[in-house]
Amino acid sequence: KLTSLALQPAITPELVQGRVHLKCSYSPPSPEPPVQFRVLWSRLSSPGKREQIHQETTPQPFSYVEMDGANLRLGDTVFCTVTAFRRGTPEQQSLPEDSKGFYAGIKFLPESLEIAEDGKEHVLTVLSTVPIACPGQDDSCKMTLQLSTEDLGSQVPGPPDIALSACQVDLLPEPCSGSSCAAATVTVTAVTDFAQDGNRASRVSARPAAPRDLLWRAYTPRDVKVTVRDLPTGNCYSFTDPHIITFDGRRYDSHKIGTFLLCRSESRAFEVHIRQWDCGGHRSATACNCGVAAR
């Protein structure tokens, strides 16, 4: 009779002799006579389909498989399925139990972003779910990722609507905890472009920079989609013999001679000065714009 033994298989990454391995651990039933475990490793080959990569029978409550870049590559989602049976009676098996899928590679958190043209910085975390191996003794142990941005085919073609705080990040190894074995952060800001160009989508891509490790060489991490919500822009004007229209639409005239502060932001270093001189001659006292300075 098939029974469920609550083996609870789970996959964790581990460095074994400097090489990346995945370990499937499970809780053996107790108190029971000695049992054997059949462990089947598989990876997601297409949505909903799994491909078997390794199988072994072991008395141990764990099983290892190496990420060799051929059978098992970065970017794979990996599962282990465990069945228990008594020695000598392999036909008396427990129900096979699946681990959760383990994604091996680089992850962005959050996986997508929606931001507005408001100048705010949004933190994007880049993490590796597998340990960073050190190829040689003389090497500083890190994985450098080149970051880039790209516009995703908006109606108005142009440069991406987003700016990053850095063009590259270094992933430095640390003890694996949760789903992270190395992490770095970068901030994403929407470019305030003063254009009514609708909501636009861009993407942030990461590429391992000159990796020596074969495992990383053929790997392209998933992109992050960033949608930028268009915000209308305020306008103020000073024109001819200065007629002034403020941000909130008030209108008035200013005929004074001199240099004046036209506008100043209370939240950031931004201000505009205007210079007005006499342009009416003897007949009328009129001032005209003759200079502008903006910071």
UniProtKB/TrEMBL annotation:
<dbReference type="GO" id="GO:0005102">
    <property type="term" value="F:signaling receptor binding"/>
</dbReference>
<dbReference type="InterPro" id="IPR050969">
    <property type="entry name" value="Dev_Signal_Modulators"/>
</dbReference>
<dbReference type="GO" id="GO:0005576">
    <property type="term" value="C:extracellular region"/>
</dbReference>
<feature type="domain" description="VWFD">
    <location>
        <begin position="234"/>
        <end position="295"/>
    </location>
</feature>
<keyword id="KW-1015">Disulfide bond</keyword>
<protein>
    <submittedName>
        <fullName>VWDE protein</fullName>
    </submittedName>
</protein>
<dbReference type="Pfam" id="PF00094">
    <property type="entry name" value="VWD"/>
</dbReference>
<keyword id="KW-0732">Signal</keyword>
<dbReference type="InterPro" id="IPR001846">
    <property type="entry name" value="VWF_type-D"/>
</dbReference>
<dbReference type="Pfam" id="PF25776">
    <property type="entry name" value="Ig_VWDE"/>
</dbReference>
<dbReference type="InterPro" id="IPR057885">
    <property type="entry name" value="Ig_VWDE"/>
</dbReference>
<dbReference type="GO" id="GO:0009986">
    <property type="term" value="C:cell surface"/>
</dbReference>
